[in-house]
Amino acid sequence: MNIVFVVNNKNGGLAAELPKLEQYCQQKNLRDVRFIPTRWKKHAIEIAKEATGDGCSHVIAVGGDGTLHEVINGILQSNISANEYPIIGLLPYGSANDFARTVGLSNSLEELLQLIQSHTTQEIDLGKVVFSKNQETHYFINVTGVGLGALVIQKLERSSNSLSPSLNYFIYIVKGFISYAKKKVKVKSDSWHWRGKLLQMVIANGRYFGNAICATPDAKLIDGQFQVAIFGNLSIWDYLKNLIKLKTGEKIKHPEVSYYTTKEVLIESSDSCGIEADGEYLGLAPAAISVLPKAISFLMPPKPVR
């Protein structure tokens, strides 16, 4: 095996953990293992792309949803065929770890190495975002958000406070409600259409986003389709009244809330409507978002995949 760990160097806590991870691998006689720390934003894309081109057997993201997002994009940007992609894994050391929450992963290196040695994987779906204006393409493993969520991500990226991720996200959501002008959006799918003023749309492969918000409880990683939740012309009071339901995965009954399934959607807007994926800001609509069924092999516990 040739295993590459892509380590998010922005996480200060990992500085102390990295020598422990390396020592543990040595104790387990795993010799062909490299730990490569990131040094700038999107460096994980470059590392994963190069490791894939070099023929490594496994690429493991050590960090959060953003690190995993970059690793996925690096692998799919490589110039090799899909059946030669390395197995992908995650050691969750991020601030939210929403994808790990869906899969049921801990940050135990011992458990991860057991998955590697037993070859315990599942073939799971990915999502693809193509922006219409320049055909720029991005891939995601968890969730794409359209509307308010993209603004919140931009605010969080510029934030320097030391609050907990959950509280930080909540604060920026509330601030967003106060300042955010809902966008006029058209959404087209093969089987349904939606148009109106949009607060937030979630196009989900996984179940959680935004630090344990479960807006799409029916989402599954292996069913070849997205679960879509559309929150239209809602007020801040609507959000606060339904916050518990969003945290516990209960669907909201409200005339401005809709749920759909789809394999592909086209999002159009005459306003500046932002799009993010896996907690990373991508750009502005219009864009086409489609599912890539069973696109990768992912290291995960042997249990039914949601």
Largest sheet: 6 strands, antiparallel
Shape: globular
Q: Which CATH class of the largest domain applies here?
A: Mainly Beta
**SSE run:** EHEHEHEHHEEEHHEEEEHHEEEEE
Class based on secondary structure composition and strand pairing: alpha+beta
Task: State the assembly state of the protein chains.
Answer: single chain
**If helices are DSSP runs of H or I spanning 4 or more residues, what is the number of helices?**
9
C-alpha Rg (nearest Å): 19 Å
Counting structural domains, the number is 2
CATH topology of the largest domain: Tumour Suppressor Smad4
Q: How are the strands of the biggest sheet laid out side by side?
A: 6-5-16-13-8-9
Helix content: 25-40%
Mean pLDDT: 91
Question: Any low-confidence stretches, pLDDT <50, length ≥5?
Answer: none
The portion of residues forming beta strands comes to 25-35%
Instruction: Work out the number of β strands.
Output: 16
Distance between the termini: 29 Å
In the CATH hierarchy, the architecture of the largest domain is: Sandwich
